[in-house]
Amino acid sequence: MLKVLRVTVVVILCILICVFGSLYSLIRFKHPSNVGLMARCFGRLYPLFGLQVEHRFLPNADQIGNCIYIGNHQNNYDMVTISYMVMPRTVSVGKKSLIWIPFFGFLYWVTGNILIDRENRSKAHNTMTTVTKHITEDNISIFMFPEGTRSRGHGLLPFKTGAFHTALAAGVPVVPIVCSTTHNKIDLNRWNNGKVICEMMEPIDSSQFSKENVREFAEYCHRVMAKRLAELDAEIATTEKA
């Protein structure tokens, strides 16, 4: 019964956010801060899932400047956990098929996110070139999930290199954002589903890498995030035992 109630309330609220968010974003068509505002609206829904989410931002988060934010992509609950970490003047890059999701697809487009066709390599490459241009000309940052798909409990999947090529081309740092594990943690029929931590890490300077060793760049960021993910999971496990 609790699960049915939760799902019903969440669906209604998500539709409302999508509808009113789309109307608001039409007024400020593709304004770069639309995405962060809508992401935080979804991010505030976490109590409805019986979660306590701690958001840890860097003290100087608003002074980092243009960058590529990268996050771990776990499951659909990312919408109420890590989404809250999207900063102002930040847009995301997502697959073109997202636009066909009822209500959400239109919101995703009208807020100013960038859609790419993953099935067409040449178009995807051109899009990433355009993304690089937008970073400098429009004074924006980009949020990406370098795993390319949801991990669904398989740990931090290997990173694709698109985000790192973009960081190198734009000459901006990469800022990892790590969310503690939520796989098999949430039972919608349970009142309390425990704590989740979302943490912004220190920027990683892209100038120490190049196009020739972009794979090394991606693997370095992967190691940094995997280590911190394990630490966050251990911290939560210790807290829950206490």
Automatic annotation (TrEMBL):
InterPro entries reported in the protein's UniProt record: AGP_acyltrans, Plipid/glycerol_acylTrfase
Reactions catalysed according to its record: a 1-acyl-sn-glycero-3-phosphate + an acyl-CoA = a 1,2-diacyl-sn-glycero-3-phosphate + CoA
One GO term (biological process): CDP-diacylglycerol biosynthetic process
Record key words, sorted: Acyltransferase, Lipid biosynthesis, Lipid metabolism, Membrane, Phospholipid biosynthesis, Phospholipid metabolism, Transferase, Transmembrane, Transmembrane helix
Name recorded for this polypeptide: 1-acyl-sn-glycerol-3-phosphate acyltransferase
Enzyme Commission identifier(s): 2.3.1.51
Family membership noted in the UniProt record: Belongs to the 1-acyl-sn-glycerol-3-phosphate acyltransferase family.
Gene (UniProt): plsC
Enzyme class (EC, first level): transferase
Pathway the protein acts in: Lipid metabolism; Phospholipid metabolism; CDP-diacylglycerol biosynthesis; CDP-diacylglycerol from sn-glycerol 3-phosphate: step 2/3
Gene Ontology annotations for the cellular component aspect, listed alphabetically: plasma membrane
GO molecular function, one term: 1-acylglycerol-3-phosphate O-acyltransferase activity
Listed transmembrane segments: 7-27, 97-116
Organism: [Actinobacillus] rossii
One Pfam family named in its UniProt record: Acyltransferase
Lineage: Bacteria, Pseudomonadati, Pseudomonadota, Gammaproteobacteria, Pasteurellales
Occurrences of domain Phospholipid/glycerol acyltransferase (ranges): 67-182
Note on domains (UniProt): The HXXXXD motif is essential for acyltransferase activity and may constitute the binding site for the phosphate moiety of the glycerol-3-phosphate.
Domain of life: Bacteria
